[in-house]
């Protein structure tokens, strides 16, 4: 069974313990890890790992010892309660083994939770979970978290009350921060407000939010958005020397131009003050305009597909060419 959107978020927050299996996959390893952590905690509770009700199996180990999966699913714990067998970093090479495990699963066995990287629609691993009547398949993509997901993170960090302006600020930050960084920020806010029963304010958010999201990446994106073509290549060389890969650059550029598009369309209602880059980005959005920003996003999506394809073109060269094209498009 395939779940998407809000339905998938609700399921990951409270998985059905009667299901045989759950597949969580996505290109962003941090996003997958966080959702897997949430689902496993909901299934076995905070004491589950300490009570040996969680068994972790690496995909590479299962290739050497396939029988370990069946043994783990049928094993009994010394402690009462539901159990989970977690298979991490699975690929299509484990399809046959996991098919057999789901087929042989019986009530009382541990629930099988599998994580994987980006899977295509043709993936054999994805297909067995999609089609199984008692298993769930959830794909996680690069979309920012929804309001409901952020509210769930706030509740788990002890933040029950948030001013509307602060919530809009968090929503805007979620479009720029990686999932792990966003969770760390919310946990920091929870600690900050631990003894304060009042709602989280936009001023408190501004005080604790990162001053800049990957400052050097911001520098190159500003150079592109402001048409400073000669600055693009030197800034890219600096990022490349730091180990930043082309796909990360493309994701960052796409997020930046999506933010500009929201500003140009009036859809971004985030309050001023929590993000020091906001005024600069608003000026960029005004100069680009809706039509040119849509063209820019089309180019970045095309570049992203090229980078993730089997093309042998050097990734950084492909990315540099796209950014230089954008810097001359205004």
Automatic annotation (TrEMBL):
GO BP annotations, alphabetical order: DNA-templated DNA replication
Reaction(s) this enzyme catalyzes, per UniProt: DNA(n) + a 2'-deoxyribonucleoside 5'-triphosphate = DNA(n+1) + diphosphate
Keywords recorded for this protein, A-Z: DNA replication, DNA-directed DNA polymerase, Nucleotidyltransferase, Transferase
An annotated Gene Ontology molecular function: DNA-directed DNA polymerase activity
Domain of life: Bacteria
E.C. numbers: 2.7.7.7
Gene3D superfamilies found in the cross-reference section: 1.20.272.10, P-loop containing nucleotide triphosphate hydrolases (3.40.50.300)
Gene Ontology CC: one annotated term: DNA polymerase III complex
Family: Belongs to the DNA polymerase HolA subunit family.
Name assigned to this protein: DNA-directed DNA polymerase
Species for this entry: Cereibacter ovatus
């Amino acid at each position: 069974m395939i779940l998407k959107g809000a339905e998938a978020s609700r399921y990951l927050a409270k998985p059905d313990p009667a299901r045989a299996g759950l597949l969580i996959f996505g290109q962003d390893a941090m996003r997958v890890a966080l959702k897997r952590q949430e689902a496993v905690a909901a299934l076995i509770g905070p004491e589950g790992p300490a009570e040996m009700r969680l068994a972790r199996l690496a995909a590479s180990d299962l290739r050497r010892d396939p029988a370990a999966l069946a043994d783990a699913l049928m094993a009994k714990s010394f402690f009462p309660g539901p159990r989970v067998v977690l298979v991490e970093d699975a690929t299509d090479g484990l399809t046959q083994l996991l098919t057999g495990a789901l087929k042989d699963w019986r009530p009382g066995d541990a629930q099988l939770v599998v994580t994987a990287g980006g899977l295509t629609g043709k993936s054999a691993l994805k297909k067995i979970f999609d089609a199984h009547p008692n298993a769930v398949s959830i794909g996680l993509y690069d979309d920012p978290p929804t309001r409901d997901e952020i509210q769930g993170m706030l509740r788990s960090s002890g933040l029950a009350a948030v001013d509307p302006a602060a919530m809009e600020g968090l929503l805007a930050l979620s479009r720029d921060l990686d999932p792990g960084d966003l969770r760390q920020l919310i946990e920091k806010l929870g600690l900050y407000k631990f003894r304060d029963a009042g709602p989280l304010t936009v001023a408190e958010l501004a005080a604790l939010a990162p001053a800049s999201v990957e400052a050097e990446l911001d520098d190159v994106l500003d150079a592109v958005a402001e048409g400073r073509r000669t600055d693009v290549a030197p800034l890219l060389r600096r990022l490349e020397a730091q180990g930043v890969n082309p796909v990360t650059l493309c994701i960052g550029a796409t997020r930046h131009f999506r933010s500009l598009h929201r500003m140009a369309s009036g859809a971004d209602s985030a309050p001023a003050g929590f993000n020091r880059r906001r005024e600069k980005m608003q000026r960029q959005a005004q100069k680009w305009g809706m039509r040119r920003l849509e063209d820019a996003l089309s180019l970045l999506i095309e570049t992203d597909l090229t980078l993730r394809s089997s093309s042998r073109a050097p990734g950084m060269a492909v990315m540099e060419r796209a950014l230089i094209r954008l810097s001359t498009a205004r």
